[in-house]
Amino acid sequence: xxxxxxxxxxTPVSNESSPKKxxxxxxxxxxxxVIVAAVVAWTxxxxxTGLAQGTEVKKVYSIAALLAGIFIVTALGYMLGRITIKxxxxxxxxxxxVAILFGFICTLIPEDLPVLGSFxxxxxxxxxxxxxxxxxxIGLVMFVGSVGFIAGPKFFRDLAKNFKTYILxxxxxxxxxxxVAVGFALIPGIGSPFSAGVLSGALTTxxxxxxxxxxxxxxxxxxxxxxxIAYPFGVIGVVLFVQLMPKFLKANMNYERGLLKSDVxxxxxxxxxxxxxxxxxxxxxxxxxxxxxxxxxxxxxxxTGEGFNGACFSLGTTGGVLIMCLVFGHxxxxxxxxxxxxxxxxxxxxxxxxxxxxxGAGVDGGVNLVAQVSNAGGGMIVVYGLLGGVIMTIVPMIxxxxxxxxxxxxxxxxxxGSITGGMTSTPALGTLINTAETEDxxxxxxxxxxxxxxxxxxxxxxxxxxxx
Length: 468
Fold this sequence. Notes:
The protein contains 15 helices and four strands.
């Protein structure tokens, strides 16, 4: 009888409340849709009647289009990156491909189209400059800064142990790519400016690209065209390489991680003392290290007799920030001031930074590629650039992998980490960290990256200067 009472009491309540909840849900949904429809109608009306021609309204639309573009690319990019074929996926690099496509599509949108015209992009658009100068660089410093703090405690010990190995890896990787580029430049109708641009794109190096531009003179357009054509595969090729090689070799990743950890000596335990911490997320030390890194990266060293008016070498944003964050991560404190960035913060900022970097680089690359190919009139030079870029990306990786594995006897993950540094590939490092499931691979990247950066700047500079 007691159970029957419970049933008769509870059943009417659930039957009465369910329709009410459903009706309320539909009521709020209807209100939301009406509000959205009203906003859309007002936006279209204001654009059609000419209100959108005002400068301030245009700015509002432009900012909204910029923000919408970032999140559209983010959502679609991660969906694409999640697609896995036989255990291989693009991961965060999927954002890069979607960003290129987004940039290309935005060049096709008429600028005078109501509302959607705000998404129009071309070489001179303000939003393209934001994608390239602001979003890409903010993402870059966040990514390399986080990697520096993660690798810092173990980096200098690993560098002392394998310093000569990593220098040799960097030299051989850049040298092999340069030899291919020189041979490519000697093909009739190609020339060294275009070939240097392809090399800088294949190795995804902005400093090398800048060095080539400085000495190209009237042929700067060819350098830019070569860089724009080769850059996309330069990113995707290394990302796929670091995922495919462990699968081709049927590597035991648990075993390889063990070798990596034994090769990279564990950091010594820090003395117990209470340290003053400015914030729980480590944002203050990260910001301080980035500022110091930007100052170091801005230092220029002349490479020719023309002094600072000629070609110069600098660590740039990537190199300067990476080195200073490694130093901060190594020491961990100044007196009683903590310089530590918690692991959970570093990992989150690393992924966010990589995502923003790829969005900025991808959108700019998509717009730039369309513009440069249009200026060149298409044709065989574009085909040559694509083939040359693929070869200049693949050959250095294969040569470096053989050298590291067969000659220098590097463990697999150290070998791949060094290759990502030698190829100066920031996105590939992020992929390798996810593939290896450990941040320890960042040490090999950071050890090889500086020497590769110096050599690629010299290579792009000398190619144009010597071959002409």
